[in-house]
Amino acid sequence: MLASPRSAACKLREMAIDSNDADKRDSQTHPCILWSQTKTLIMISIQCPYAVGCVFYPHCLILSPVDEPAQQTILTFYKDVHHQPIKMRTLEDDTQVIWLRKTSSAMWPRLFENEHLVHLVYIDDGSAALPHDQDVDDVIDFDEVVNRNGNKTGLEM
After folding, report:
1. Are strands 52-56 and 60-65 parallel, antiparallel or unpaired?
2. With contact defined as beta carbons under 8 Å apart, do 112 and 122 qualify?
3. Which residue, 123, 80, 78, 75, is CA-closest to 102?
4. What's the pLDDT score for residue 22?
5. What are the φ/ψ torsions at residue 16 (nearest 5 degrees)?
6. End-to-end C-alpha distance for the chain, whole angstroms
7. Are 153 and 146 in contact (CB under 8 A)?
8. In this structure, are residues 128 and 8 in contact, taking their beta carbons and an 8 Å threshold?
9. pLDDT of residue 147
10. Beta strands 41-47 and 96-101: pairing type?
């Protein structure tokens, strides 16, 4: 059985304990990103003391505080990803968990080219990168919805 979003994030948090005071100060200004991978998937868990918006592009992830959208952190992926997330979850503690598909099947030595901009923790356990199999029904393929409904998602007002 594959890891659930909650258990994957809890497992990642447990593996990333033991921060010193400097790390705590850093985590208040920069998001903490825990990540894991398989050859084809990346799981990113974004933990931040403030609400943060995420925008994905094939080559980068842009994070910005919701209350200050002009203050952006642009993180360049090691290699390109499919910018449409496979799955996204916001947990009770406002941790955002995102699963992305890599454009090429290979293990990456790092997540970002400019990883110094965030507090980054790699979890060397590929099972944390896999979405739970019972959550597959929760996944919405927006391309399929739009194509099936004549370019309408049902969210239009």
Report:
1. antiparallel
2. no
3. 80
4. 38
5. -110, 30
6. 40
7. yes
8. yes
9. 63
10. antiparallel
Residue carrying structure tokens 């790699």:
122
The model's pLDDT over 30-55, given as tens digits with 9 standing for 90+, comes to: 789 999 999 999 999 998 888 888 88
CA angle 135, 138, 141 (to 5 degrees): 120
H or E, element range at 7: helix 5-15
Q: Taking the model in full, what pTM does it have?
A: 0.65
d(CA 116, CA 75) in angstroms, rounded, equals 9
Beta strands at 119-122 and 32-37: parallel, antiparallel or unpaired: parallel
Task: State whether residue 54 is helix, strand or coil.
Answer: strand
> What torsion do the CA atoms of 12, 122, 93, 87 make, to the nearest 10 degrees?
-100
pLDDT of residue 92: 76
Nearest to 32 by CA among 14, 16, 53: 16
Distance CA 52, CA 124 (A): 26
How many other CB atoms sit within 10 Å of the CB of residue 113?
Answer: 13
Specify whether the CB–CB gap between 85 and 56 falls below 8 A.
yes
Q: What angle do CA 8, 24, 61 make, to 5 degrees?
A: 55
Which tokens hold the place of 14? Answer: 């447990």
Tokens 């739009």, residue?
A: 146
